[in-house]
Amino acid sequence: ILSGPPKEVILKELEGLQIPYTHIFSIVDHCKESGVEMYQDKEGHWWTRDEYFWDKAKSDYCVKHKIDLHLDDSDRYGHFFTTPYARVFTKDKRSMIGRAANKES
Description:
The chain is α/β, with parallel strands linked by helices and 105 residues long.
């Protein structure tokens, strides 16, 4: 599972969803570990001034870990991918994990 929020937020959301997974990748955590400055707004959303680093993080992870297909609810990252990338449309643009991050603040 590749997602933006911190790993602990992703884990909390996954507890009730019964979705099997083997690994979790948090873009926020990746940015912090890589020395990219991160900050939160009043609503608790995470941001960085280095949008390029953020936007290509999922693609880099897929290449590094030889992931065959990436599904995402956003077109934003697609042009960074060399591995297959599929846009998934959801009823609500904000993902369940994104809503969980909002509840944290």
